[in-house]
Amino acid sequence: MMKLFYYPGNASLCVHFLLEELGAPYELVLVDRTQGAHKAAEYLKLNPNGLIPVLMDGDLVLSKTAAILLHLCDTHECFAPPLKTLKRAQFYKWLMFLTNTLQAEMIVYFYPDRWAKGAATAEVKASSEANLSGYFDLLEAQFSAHGGPYLLGAEITALDYFLWMLCRWSRGMERPARTLPQLSAFLARLDARPAVARAYAQEQLGEPHY
Questions:
Q1: Coil, strand, or helix at residue 27?
Q2: Tell me: the pLDDT tens digits for 110-136?
Q3: Cβ–Cβ < 8 Å for 151, 163
Q4: Beta bridge partners of 153
Q5: C-alpha dihedral over 10, 110, 136, 149, to 10 degrees?
Q6: Which of 4, 145, 153, 185 is the most buried (most CB within 10 A)?
Q7: Degrees (nearest 5) of the Cα angle 155, 156, 159?
């Protein structure tokens, strides 16, 4: 049985969504960040970076959200376009955008003190929020270009769970993702899926969802 090491609402959330969609047996293992469990020696044996999530699948111990999603897509042969297709190339492009651009910028927004000290952290945070706003505009344009309902078009993929999670993280911003019409409709569409509801209940995450 697979094990997902998680913390509620953390970067493990989209993996949790996908596991629920797959219907594969798995176990949730709470890594309590509030108690420093992600930096404890036992957890560092799984992920020396001390970050969440980690997925254990047999002898495989895998970290990095994007890598875990791709592994699940490949091993279950679903929630990603077929290999050697143009759609698969688009899947890779947007996966890299979500993890290397959007998620990376989210880290700057939430932890500006890693890049500046004192009063300068406010400037870093404001600059990061402006960047994120521009990235959400790009995503809005992507949905407008093909008419949705999902990031790649007609078929839902693991990308949509990753995007939903990142949009959720914007809910406290001055211009959150939900204020853009195409993204708002997308978020509501994903929020209505039973797998998402089950994951939310298991992690005891309340409103607002996004």
A1: strand
A2: 999 999 999 999 999 999 999 999 999
A3: yes
A4: 150
A5: 10
A6: 4
A7: 125
Backbone angles phi, psi at 50, to 5 degrees: 70, 30
Q: Where do we find the tokens 């400037």? A: 123
Residue given tokens 């996908």 in the structure block: 18
**Closest Cα to residue 24, out of 63, 48, 57, 68?**
57
Which H or E element spans position 26? strand 26-30
In terms of Cα–Cα distance, which of 147, 149, 198, 190 is closest to 167? 190
pLDDT digits (tens, 9 = 90+) for 182-210: 999 999 999 999 999 999 999 999 888 99
pLDDT of 103 > 90? The answer is: yes
From the list 195, 184, 102, the residue with the least C-alpha distance to 156 is: 195
Q: Give the pairing type, strands 2-6 and 26-30.
A: parallel
* CA terminus-to-terminus distance, the chain: 31
Task: Output the CA torsion sign for 28, 34, 35, 36.
Answer: positive
* DSSP element (H, E) containing 97: none
- 83, amino acid identity: L
Q: What is the per-residue pLDDT for 124?
A: 97
Q: How far lies 98's CA from each of 30, 49, 104, 152, 166, in Å? A: 25, 20, 8, 13, 8
